[in-house]
Amino acid sequence: MERRLHLNWQLLVEEAKLRRKNQKLTQKRLALLAKVSTPTISRFEGGAKDIQLSSIFNILNILGLMDNRNLNFPDPNPQIIRSSGLIEFWGEGHNNKKILCRCSEEALEDLSGEREFTKIPLLRIFKQHQLSIEQIARRKYLENILEDDGSILIKSDDINS
Fold this sequence. Notes:
Distance between the termini: 8 Å
Order of helices and strands: HHHHEEEHHHEH
Largest sheet: 4 strands, mixed
CATH topology of the largest domain: Double Stranded RNA Binding Domain
Number of helices: 8
CATH architecture of the largest domain: 2-Layer Sandwich
Shape: elongated
Strand order of the largest sheet: 1-2-3-4
Structural class: alpha+beta
Number of domains: 2
CATH class of the largest domain: Alpha Beta
Number of strands: 4
Radius of gyration: 21 Å
């Protein structure tokens, strides 16, 4: 699944500059906090695009413009919930918060291209497509697309979007 991501560089630079000023930080102080040189801050605010990505991340992080959340799957240990037709597994979000993730049989069918589950066990299909499933769960988590109970449900629509 490939998605197009767009970055409006000019808007990002303007927002960073505005935040620096609102936080009453000089370029020199921001450089010190972000562990970059003052000329790097000046070049960044001038719209230069040849700055190391790590330096940009440091600057944006200090200014509160970075989203450092992530959803990891240290031990997904998937389980079939027969009554609901879902595969359940756990992710670990911000501050080690456990997030219940579910994947529907239909979503697995769409991922695998298999139309008859009786021949291939669901857990095997899950494991074959685990990285894709985790990526979809991670995207939904970061976009705050959660169920009412705070869990993540991966449906057929999520596979094709």
